[in-house]
Amino acid sequence: MKKSKILQFVAIVLCILMVFTACNGKTTPATDGSGTSAPKQDDSASKPQKITLRFEQFSGSGDTEEYLKKMIEEYNKVNPNVTVELQTIGYNDYFNQLMAKVAGGTAPDVYELNYENFVSYAKKGVLLPLDDIINKTGFDVSKYNSMALNAFKVDNTQYGLPNSFSNVLLFYNKELFDKAGVEYPTNDWDWEDVLEAAKKIRALDEHTFGYYRPVSFHELYKAVKQNGGSLFNEDMTKFTIDTPENRETVQYMVDMVKKYNVMPTEEQLAGMGDWDLFKAGRLGMIVTGVWAFSDFTKNCEFEWDIAVEPGNKSKATHFFSNGYVINRDSKVAETAFEFASFISSSKEAVQIRLDAGWELPPVTDSSILEQYKKITPPSNRQAVFDSLDYLVTPPVIEQFQEFQDIIAKHLTVIVQSNVTVEDALSACQEELEEVIKIN
Amino acid sequence: MTRKNINKYISTLIFYVVGGLTAAILLIPFFWMIVTSLKTKGALLSIPVEWIPKNPSLAAYEKIFKLEGFSKAIFNSFYLAITTTIVQILSASMAAYAFSKIRFKGNEALFRVYLATMMIPFQVVFIPLFIISSSLRLTNSLNAFLLLQLFNPFAIFMLRQKMMGINDSFIEAAIIDGANHFHIFTKVILPLSSGVIATLGIMSFMGSWNDYLLPLVMISDKKKFTLPLILNSLNGQYGSDYNLLMAGSLISIIPILIVFMFAQKYFRSGLQVGGVKA
Amino acid sequence: MQKIARHNSFSKALPFILPSLAGLIVFSLLPIITSLIISTSSWDGLTKLTLFTDAKSFFNNFYIGLKNFRDILKGDEFWKVLKNTLYFIVLYLPLILISSIAVANILNKKYRGIGFFRVLYYVPVLTSWVAGALIWKWALSPEYGIINEILDLIGIEGPKWLQSETWAMPSIVLASIWKDVGYFGLIFLGGLQSIDPTYYEAAEIDGATGWRKVWYITLPMLSPVTFFVIVISIINSFQLFPQVMVMTKDAGPNGATQVFVERIYKYAFKYHKMGYAAAYSWILFVIIFIFTTLQLKLQKRWVHYDT
Questions:
Q1: Closest Cα partner for C267 from C259, C255, C275, C258?
Q2: Domain co-membership, A314 together with A339
Q3: Backbone conformation region of residue C2, classed left if phi is above 0, alpha if psi is from -120 to 50, else beta
Q4: Contacts for B107-110 with beta carbons within 8 Å, 24 or more apart?
Q5: Residue B102 is nearest to which of C8, C224, C265, comparing CB atoms?
Q6: Mean of the per-residue pLDDT values for chain C?
Q7: Rounded Cα distance, C43 and C65, in Å
Q8: Residue A297 sits in a domain of what CATH number?
Q9: Residue A99, Cα to own-chain centre: how many angstroms?
Q10: pLDDT exceeding 90 applies to what percent of chain A?
Q11: A273 — contact with chain B (CB < 8 Å)?
């Protein structure tokens, strides 16, 4: 076998493939590029053309996808010339497949990102900066809750529009509080009150626990602020993980599990989720987000309510947001923006979102918010808004996910093995300095 | 009853007891999938475990059957799985024949290259593979997707192992009779390998039936969606409804079970075909 | 192994190899070579990949030479991951071989309803990891789990399984055996079915009994299949992934179940360090390649092809 023969052979193979693919290319037109078969439409305002808009998202999955379809219907009433191709992809694989499409230049025109991924995408320059379009169209961004809107800003440029908005609260089981003879939590509670109540509930019986909060980055980030500390120095140039305040914070979190055992260990959870424990009536208090409302309403056979999450030196609560972004290479960017703003903030869309009980619309419209407050349970829905005064936003770091995982890893080590808080925090500080670039 | 009969009776009994018990243990998670799919709430495991649902309901199944494009997706899945199985087995058995029965320069080396491709994790070739396929305009077509299935090193390796065990004397006999490679392959080697081919058939079918991430990026036209792509949208950001997920998985298992029952009859036939004994 | 003496040239083999070779080149080698190039870069997996259209700009923006490889081999993580993986293989390989050969033997019996049994044993292969993992997590739960309860009955205090740094990996092994035994059992069954019954008949005439038949006929005749299963399961073990993701949160206590593909997946898709992930994969490739080559070399000593 000569080399030339091999080359000849490879050439034959490639030819065959090309013939194959050429045939195929004819039968499936226009799937490359941004996937939009529509012509350019810069002057579409005057004469509407047929436009196809590709839209991918994850938050409307299962039941909620129906509501999203209704929003698109509403949008089409005003813009009948636009065909929205909705594709819903499950959360687990959404970002994997999205990366392939973005890197391959076939990203959809409008797509959804969670906050964790948003910063990476924006910093890599794959998203369309929205400021020009906002200025050009005179779109009123003050409709949005400013906190949520700012979350989708990187380096003072708006790259996304928030579509939902959730914050974290203290949920409690009223029956267990009654049984243990403890007053219900109020907005004035602090860490000490939580611990005392949790102890009393834990004393009820072997399988009932007082309190649960996930051992996660988000919880730490917030708890640190509740105790007057921070994970960064003021100008965000250095990590300040291992400080006296933070040690105290982590110690409090760990003691809940290890010393007082008011919060179950992993073994005690035995594969059950934290929500399941609460829904089973075996948990007095749980720190989780407003997205639990519909599940708890459906599945809890006891009365429950919420309160602003207690702090220590000050209060701090977390918020999460998903947003819609626009592909930098989209050929129909203006329509994409119009659509994204419609389904995130138009009165029609917001009303649908509200009626569905699907998270909190990220808007400031008081008539909408009044409606939201009236839905029960929880009866103290006001707490959702009271919490807004104490929101802390996650830091804008390009390696956000990695940062988050490193912190979670060290936290888990403290809770699950016998490493001291001091050792774990200094190890954490060291690893972060080595791996994460801030700015 | 003779002693031999008693012995036989006892060993049969032992077989059923041991086999049955092992099977029962293996099947617990499957049983639990069924139970969960019949629950009304998507509750996770609770303690104590609720082995029998209190209010069994078929609501989850109804919901899945009502998913947009469900029946079309079933059709697409069958289409893709059947064609994939045929393409893979054909292409793999041909290659395996060449590697095991034709001596050519670079045989071993080329086979090593085939094997080596299995050693790179899919996760890193995934994005390049997608970009290459989409620049060849292979996206959004089930038939084009089929091209990606031409090469299956696992199947080639498995068939080669089988074919290497086939005695060369058959082939020599055939050559004396004036047969060429094509005849030897179709008349001697394939029939003698039918047991392994049946096994591989199940695996190819299953692989294609469950294939998910690649079709997810390659196929964007909803009319061409396969079952896993439709079921995937049930995965939520904050946990999923487990009853729906389990009902979905069960629905997707059934066709493979049917294929399996059909194919396992052929496991034995590998020996009986072909004039000379193996 | 002797191959047919005459008619032996590439041109004869070509028609048979052509379809798979075409697939190999375009859909396997090309992406693999691309990933090799990516491994020398700091590409993030998000910025449009211009390697094919404008290679120059790709290299200008991302090329960093062998830095990824150096960083990986210098850090502690890699060695820990390697250790965890080898731990898995040492436990998994003997267990899966013994159990799947045993299952194949059960399924090779000619009892009534054997077809039904074959289906039953194959069901775990089809059961989703989500359901499997939930049940296993429950079964392995230190306080409420059935496994520790049984151990308790015979007076053994069970370990903390998935929550213990020592026992997390064995827990993964257990679940993996459950999932894979039907799969490899089926492959072994194919091997058993190919053994010519006349060998056994001849042995019986010579007075051979049960175990001798197994030792002198079954195992040698099964060796090509055993070889295949060992090669495949070592490759699979090095690429161990879904069970780790669903059974252990954040790769177990103190990273006890951190394995290669889990790391690669995180670097590639969560941390957007595609270059680093590709370098990791290539190191993994070299390791698997060494193992497989070793086996191909050693097979001549113990694998009997029927010629």
A1: C275
A2: no
A3: beta
A4: B107/C13, B110/C17
A5: C8
A6: 88
A7: 12
A8: 3.40.190.10
A9: 18
A10: 51
A11: yes
Q: Are B148 and B133 in contact (CB under 8 A)?
A: yes
- A112 confidence band (pLDDT: 50, 70, 90): very high
Q: Which tokens in the block code for residue A268? A: 């005690």
Domain of residue A202, residue span = 166-318+383-435
Which residues, including other chains, have CB under 8 Å from residue A114's CB and lie 6 or more apart?
Answer: A320, A322, B237
* CB-based contact, B23 to chain C, within 8 Å: yes
Extract the tokens encoding A371.
Answer: 């409606």
Kindly report, residue by residue over C33-83, the tens digit of the pLDDT: 999 999 999 999 999 888 888 889 999 999 999 999 999 999 889 999 999
Q: Is residue A401 part of a domain?
A: yes
Report ipTM for this prediction.
0.85
Q: Would you list the domain boundaries of chain C?
A: 75-271
Q: Testing the interface with B: which of A57, A89, A164 to mutate, by most B Cβ within 10 A?
A: A89
C-beta of residue B215 within 8 angstroms of C-beta of residue B228: yes
Q: Are residues A252 and A394 in the same domain?
A: yes
Q: Are residues A78 and A139 in the same domain?
A: yes
Residues A212 and A140 in one domain: no
Residues constituting chain C: 307
Choose among B214, B88, B212: nearest CA to B151.
Answer: B88
Residues C244, B83: Cα–Cα separation, whole Å: 32
Same domain? A62 vs A140: yes
Q: What value does the mean pLDDT of chain B take?
A: 85
Distance (Å, whole) CA B198 – CA B259: 10
* Residue A358 maps to a domain: yes
| Average pLDDT for B90-99 | 95
State how far the Cα of B97 lies from the Cα of B100, in Å rounded to an integer: 5
Domain boundaries, chain B: 58-271
Residue C20: alpha-carbon gap to chain centroid: 22
Asked whether the predicted pLDDT for residue A34 surpasses 70, the reply is no
Residue A1 has pLDDT above 60, yes or no: no
Task: Kindly report, residue by residue over A167-217, the tens digit of the pLDDT.
Answer: 899 999 999 999 999 999 998 899 999 999 999 999 998 889 999 998 888
pLDDT class of C258 with cuts at 50, 70, 90: very high
Statement to judge: residues A197 and A87 lie in one domain? no
Report whether B183 contacts C12 (CB < 8 A). Answer: no
Q: What is the tens place of the pLDDT at every residue in A38-74?
A: 444 444 455 568 999 999 999 887 777 888 999 999 9
Across A267-287, average pLDDT: 85
Give the number of domains in chain A: 2
What are the structure tokens assigned to C305, written together?
Answer: 């092809």
A389 within domain boundaries: yes
CA distance C165 to chain B (A): 24
The pTM is what?
0.87
Cβ contacts of A5 on chain C, cutoff 8 Å: 10
Q: Does B26 sit within 8 Å of C121, measured CB to CB?
A: yes
- Set of chain A residues whose Cβ sits within 8 Å of the Cβ of C25: 10, 13-14
Q: What is the CATH code of the structural domain delimited by C75-271?
A: 1.10.3720.10
Asked, for residue A30, whether it belongs to a domain, the answer is: no
The CATH code for residues B58-271 is: 1.10.3720.10
Any CB–CB contact under 8 A between A88 and chain B?
yes
Q: What is the pLDDT of residues B149-190, one digit of tens each?
A: 999 999 999 999 889 888 888 888 888 888 888 989 998 899
CA distance between the termini of chain A: 57
B107 touches chain A (CB under 8 A): no
CB pairs under 8 A between A and B: 116
Q: H-type helices in B51-141, by residue range? A: 59-65, 70-101, 107-116, 122-135
Chain C residues within 8 A of B102 when measuring between CB atoms: 3-4, 7-8, 12-13, 16
Q: Identify whether residues A204 and A244 lie together within a single domain.
A: yes
pLDDT tens per residue across span A211-264: 999 888 889 999 999 999 999 988 888 999 999 999 999 999 999 999 999 999
